[in-house]
């Protein structure tokens, strides 16, 4: 797809010391103006894209969760180290070739996702928001020297205010920004005021004759605006050119599926609750996400659910520890209107098939939230799908009320749903309902440390959003088992049973986080882009 001369690649791989200005990536910042001149294999093509997706989704999720700056930095540092390291220029113990390879991956992966996310306005909107957030985060973390070095190479159409003009405007410039101590020593840029509407609206810049005078301290606003404008135009161009690639049977399947990929853990089996029995399922309903709880309730009420519902719920049960033998017992009891021979004839094959014992013997994994949201939308008489995606607003509101979610929490969840942040809404539902299970008022949920006398077991919030129904189940199970262990003064070593008859488990660190719900009523979720 991309090409690069052998001499340049040889220099890149040599690990020798070079001047960064002589290289294609002098800084970690990039406006991605030109396609990367590199060769890349299909395997790298897909892996680079998925690694960048991990970075983008981690950042957007962290921002939606309103993490503290320290938590955000820690979360991003872990993701960057694992998926896309970006070494600063002044790191002495990293070979130069490795630094260039890291920046090459950043460059290539951006263009791969640009191709994948140019197919519709909805996808373009998500990608623009995600990439802009990543660029801003990186820019603000860069040293001022590297920021200026990067900007000097971009030929930006900003007019630098001369010293004479600054002296004439000194009083007005000083009055417009309390952050500037000495106007004479500050660098200012003159730009059209509509390019910095946010700063104008907050009265942080001086405006005269349609021009805004922006100090260097606020340059991130100008830089980000330039980045967004260039990328938005590039996405439109890419979208118009993309149909020419329809006949490429190597790349198009990868591009068409990148945004549908689930990047998290596959819950093939679970040791959290052990190997459960058919009769345990009703007891474990308390830990189920809303989608699975709804399927379970409808199964008990109607004594039957349709194919996609059986697949979604059956694989979920498989993931929490229901064996094939117990699954056959569970479904036969659930379909109590059928005689054993009728069940064996009509449904037993499908149960065995989902466990990889029939047909092509594929060992199917439980569906992720992304899969449930994007595939097989439910029709009349169906009960599968994601309640936050597929329930009507009145139905979802009534469901929240039936789970004792108060009006303010409900409105916050519905706001997230309206803005298509379905998994964040599910995460918020998890936090609110688990807090109530621990008798912790949502008024007291601040910063993740719950002062409800429960110690660590009171930490119901999660740094990560819910991405998988089995993740929801696992976190809830660990949380309440940890509460039981703390209350009884016993841990995993005793093996004694908790309130629901299952052995108490200690709370694991993965359940910690910051509860981000804003009881003050300030809504910060205004994006109309999909979250999943």
TrEMBL record:
Cofactor(s) in the UniProt record: [4Fe-4S] cluster
Cellular component terms per the entry's GO annotation: alpha DNA polymerase:primase complex
GO molecular function: 4 iron, 4 sulfur cluster binding; DNA binding; metal ion binding
GO-annotated biological processes: DNA replication initiation; DNA replication, synthesis of primer
Pfam families: DNA_primase_lrg (PF04104), DNA_primase_lrg_N (PF26466)
Cofactor, free-text remark: Binds 1 [4Fe-4S] cluster.
Domain DNA primase large subunit C-terminal: 286-473
InterPro entries reported in the protein's UniProt record: DNA_primase_C, DNA_primase_lsu_euk, DNA_primase_lsu_euk/arc
Gene3D superfamilies listed in its UniProt record: 1.20.930.80
Keywords: 4Fe-4S, DNA replication, DNA-binding, Iron, Iron-sulfur, Metal-binding, Primosome
Described function: DNA primase is the polymerase that synthesizes small RNA primers for the Okazaki fragments made during discontinuous DNA replication.
Family indicated by similarity: Belongs to the eukaryotic-type primase large subunit family.
Name of the molecule in the record: DNA primase large subunit
């Amino acid at each position: 797809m991309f090409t690069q001369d052998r001499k340049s690649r040889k220099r890149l791989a040599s690990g020798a010391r070079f001047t960064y200005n002589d290289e294609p990536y002098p800084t970690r910042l990039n406006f991605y103006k030109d396609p990367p001149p590199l060769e890349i294999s299909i395997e790298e093509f897909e892996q680079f894209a998925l690694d960048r997706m991990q970075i983008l989704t981690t950042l957007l999720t962290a921002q939606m969760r309103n993490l503290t700056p320290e938590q955000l930095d820690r979360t991003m540092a872990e993701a960057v180290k694992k998926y896309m390291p970006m070494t600063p220029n002044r790191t002495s113990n990293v070979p130069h070739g490795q630094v260039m390879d890291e920046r090459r991956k950043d460059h290539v992966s951006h263009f791969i996702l640009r191709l994948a996310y140019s197919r519709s306005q909805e996808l373009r909107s998500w990608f623009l928001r995600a990439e802009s957030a990543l660029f801003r985060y990186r820019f603000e973390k860069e040293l001022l020297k590297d920021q200026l070095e990067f900007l000097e190479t971009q030929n930006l159409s900003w007019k630098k205010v001369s010293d004479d003009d600054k002296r004439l405007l000194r009083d007005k410039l000083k009055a417009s920004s309390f952050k500037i101590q000495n106007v004479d020593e500050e660098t200012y840029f003159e730009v059209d005021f509509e390019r910095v509407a946010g700063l104008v609206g907050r009265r942080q810049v001086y405006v005269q004759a349609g021009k805004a005078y922006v100090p260097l301290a606020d340059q991130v606003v100008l830089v980000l605006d330039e980045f967004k404008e260039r990328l938005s135009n590039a996405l439109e161009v890419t979208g118009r050119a993309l149909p020419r690639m329809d006949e490429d049977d190597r790349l198009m399947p990868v591009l068409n599926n990148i945004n549908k990929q689930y990047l998290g853990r596959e819950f093939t089996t679970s040791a959290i609750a052990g190997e459960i029995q058919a009769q345990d399922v009703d007891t474990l309903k308390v830990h189920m996400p809303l989608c699975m709880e709804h399927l379970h309730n409808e199964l008990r009420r109607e004594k039957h659910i349709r194919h996609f519902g059986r697949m979604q719920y059956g694989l979920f049960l498989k993931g929490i520890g229901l064996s094939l033998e117990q699954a056959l017992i569970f479904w036969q009891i659930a379909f109590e209107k059928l005689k054993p021979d009728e069940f064996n004839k009509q449904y037993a094959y499908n149960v065995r098939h989902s466990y990889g014992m029939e047909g092509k013997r594929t060992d199917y994994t439980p569906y992720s939230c992304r899969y449930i949201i994007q595939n097989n939308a439910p029709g009349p008489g169906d009960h599968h799908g994601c309640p936050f995606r597929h329930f009507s607003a009145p139905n979802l509101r009534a469901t929240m009320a039936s789970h004792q979610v108060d009006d303010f929490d409900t409105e916050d969840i519905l706001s997230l749903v309206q803005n298509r942040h379905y998994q964040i809404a599910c995460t918020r539902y998890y936090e609110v309902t688990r807090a109530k299970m621990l008798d912790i008022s949502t008024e007291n949920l601040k910063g993740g440390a719950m002062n409800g006398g429960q110690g660590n077991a009171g930490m119901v919030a999660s740094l990560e959003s819910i991405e998988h129904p089995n993740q929801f189940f696992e976190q809830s199970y660990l949380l309440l088992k940890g509460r039981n262990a703390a209350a009884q003064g016993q841990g995993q070593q005793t093996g004694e049973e908790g309130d629901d008859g299952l052995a108490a488990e200690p709370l694991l660190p993965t359940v910690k986080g910051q509860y981000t719900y804003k009881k003050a009523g300030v809504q910060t979720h205004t994006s109309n882009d999909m979250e999943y």
